[in-house]
Structure formats: C-alpha cells, structure tokens
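Researcher: Let's run the pair from yesterday's discussion. Sequence first, then tokens, for each.
Model: Starting with the first of the pair.
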Amino acid sequence: MTRVHVDLQLRWGDQDAYGHVNNAAFVRYLEEARVRVFWRGAAREKTGMERHFRGDDPVSGLKTLVVNHQIEYLRVLEYSEVPITVELWIGKLGGSSLEVHYEVVDGSAPERTVVARAITTIVVVDGETLKPTRLTPEGRASIEPWTDEPLRLRR
C-alpha cells in the first residue's frame, strides 16, 4: 500500500485525567499530518501534492475545507517521547473533494501497532467565494500515486 508517513511528537499536555492521550488530540494529529502533506511538503516522502491545494494568496487563493471526520479508536495510546507515525493516503477522489484515510501508529510499540484509523473528507474551494472548485489535472496527477483502497470503519 502506498502511504505518506508523517512523524509527530506527542506533547505532555495531550494526556487526559486517565493518563493516556485524549481522543481530542487525535484530531490535531490528523490536522498536522494533512498540513504537512498538503501545504508544507514535510512528510518522509516528497509527494508533490503541496503545490496544488492552497493558493499563494492567503485571502483569495485555493483553500481546503474539512467537511467530515470519522475516527475509530482501536487502542489506548500512552504518552511517550517516541513519535507516533500518521500514515495517510487518498481513499476516494471526487471532482472537488477527496477522502484522506489514516492509520495512527504507536512509535513506542515493539511492532507496528495501529491505535486509531480515520477518514477526513476535504473539499477544495475558491478562496473568495468559498465555492467548490474542481481539482486541476496537475492536482489530480499529484494525488494518483498516493491513492489506495479506502478504509472500512466500523459503524
């Protein structure tokens, strides 16, 4: 499976009263991974996607809006100084939308241990009108190598 890997350091403040990483922190991890891939080009792999999903003008350029999050928590994640890895890929591609699929991997576990799986639907919009705008052929081409089978979350 073709995936983009983003390593993220946990923060002490991510823990809750039970001493494990709070579920709300996972939404921030997914956001940070998306920003690094789609805006910064700061994942382990160089994807080329960062040039196609935001405009140069912060006011009127392209924007990506989150329209849906689904998260399935599989295991408790304990605080560790060892980074987690957010693996992401594109599970579905539409005209102006895409589904980003993730597995969050505990970096401190002795073998690959997925602690959460998630799907985020984002829509590319015009920065001024906030109306959906079709992905460019170049944007679609940058996504295609990172497209794979979608997750099937429990309901």
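Model: Moving on to the second of the pair.
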Amino acid sequence: MSVVAVLGAGAGGLSALVELQGAGHRVQLWNRSADTLAVHVPDGEVRYAGVLGTGTVRPDLVTTDLPTALAGADLVLVTLPAPVHEAVFTALAAAGCARPVVLNPGHPGGALHARTVFVQAGVPVPPIAELSTLTYVGRVDPDGLVRTTGRAAGVRGAALPGGQVALDGARELFAQVDPVADVLVTSLSDVNLVLHPPGAVLGAAWVQATGGRFTFYREGMTDGVVRVLAALDEERIAVGAAFGHTLLPLVDEMALVGTVDAATAATGDLGGAIRQGEANATIAAPGSFAHRYYREDMPFGLVPFLALARVGGVDVPVARSLLTLARTAVGDLPAGRTAARMGIEHLGVPEVLDLVGGVPA
C-alpha cells in the first residue's frame, strides 16, 4: 500500500482516486480551486460511475494546500492538463518536493518541462517519470459525478535520468504501464498530439456554427480529416526516427490504449477504427475555441512537437500548418510548451538524447 498525493480533481484525478483507493492505496487529493472541490468532492466524497464501477469513495485527505497534500506521500501523481503544469511545477519546486513525481500524462515534453522549472528555481530535481497518455477516458458531470468511460489497457512510461523510482512507482500503481527507452518516446506516443488537431482545425466552422453539437470522433472524423490526421502521424513517426526511435502508427497506439478495436486497427483502416471506438463514441465536439482541443493540444501538443522536429531536422508542414491555422482562427492561443520551457532551445539530437538518458531503440 502506498500513500499517493493526487494533484488534480478533474476526470483523470478522480478516476485515479477511485481506482487507487479500490486497490488499497491511501490518497491525498489536492486541487488549486476550492470551488472545483466543492462541486466534484462535496463533503469530502466522490461519486463515480462507468468502467470502474458505481458508487462513492472518500479520499484520506482533500485540500487546496499543496504542502499538506505532499506530507507523508510516497509518490506524487500529477493528473492535470498541460496549461497548468508550469504553475504546478513551480509550486512543487517552491515546496521543495523531493518525492517521486509521475505525470499522468506528461503531454509532449512534460518531464523536460518539469526538470527545467526545478533547475531554474535552483531546487534539486526529484525523480520524474511521465506516461504517454492519461490512464482513463472520462468526464465530470456538472453535478460532480465522474463518469469513467474507458481505462487504458496499455500506456508508455519512461523516466528522466535518476527517476527510475518514479517509473517503478507508476508501474506499482498502474500495471498497464510499459517501460520504454526515454521520455521522447512517451512524449511522441501521446495520441492526442495527432488525434485532436486535425479535427479541431478542419471542423472549426462547424464548432462555431453548432456549438459543438456533433460527435467529435464519429461525425467529425470525415475522410478528409482522416487523411490530414494520417499525414500528421507520418510526421510524428519521422520525428521519432530522427532520435533513433521506432514509433507505432497511431491506430496501433490507440489499440494498445484500448480506445479502438484491435481487430479493426489490424485492417489499417484508421478512420474506421476511430469512428467505431466505443470509449470515445459519445464524446461531443468542442463547444467553442475555449475547449482544450484548441487551448491545450495546439500550444502544448503541436508547439513542443515542432520544437522536437526542429532539433531532429525533420520538416513537418502539416503540423506547422495546423498550428498556424489554429493561431489565426482562435487568435489568442498561449505560447505553450516551447523549446526554452523544455530546456532544449539550443541543443542538437545528441545533446537531447543525453539529457533524457535515452538510447536509440
């Protein structure tokens, strides 16, 4: 049994809370917003439904004070969206966090970003590991009920040098974590990096016209969108190859996670596999440009991807075009996870590989 500080009371954090407490671990739940906790964890209790069962669970601790959440924890599990990572990493550094930190997920470049924040703060870098994708598919209803519609069957996991204890902790909590060479593999295996930008950009007019009243993974995955998605995936695989890594095609990565049917994936029909996937079947399209498919997956998915592509010397015109169109249409996207924020601004391939402790697969 471990004591886990779960940072984040959204669908990912609450799903982790449900599963970990069910497995006998103690959970200390932290969230920055007291208002969110009041809705999602009223009276210190979480209501849940879906693939993890139906019922209620009460964490050992619920708090908005980070040092309190970290006290006595064996491991820190960050289940927050990438746009708030900077603030959370800064807070962890200010608290002098030395406990193993697991980013579930890291989003592209997450572990490198965390390392940079600690280094710039002059604080020793704790053991850091990241997962390639969130271990759950879920949403929180307006009344606070967390609906977990999917649980990842397999995810990639890797640690920065010195972070093996964090990766070991992740594997203790989540048996489906498959260790890979380095955090470049986990970052480039993030399915949302490829899965969301084409549909969000090409479906932008319909998002605004309907307020997102269509299913993103079914009605939104037209043949044209899938062709762009496939081209973006080819660029992702090419960037991985520039660092000596062989990445799975998106459809196989999604089959590993469990968000598409393995038999359909085996046919190579990317569009059919996505449209027929049950875990994502009912997920609605973004209701506006404020949605995370725009404000997270563009600046915190495509931006770090383009940075890695530059280091690897790989031309990625589809990724570059999607980001340009998104910035133009949305108008106020944040800078995102830049090369400087990952600490790779002036590095080449050998230096980046040395930084992540990786070796070509």
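Researcher: Give me one sentence on the second I can quote.
Model: The mean pLDDT is 94.
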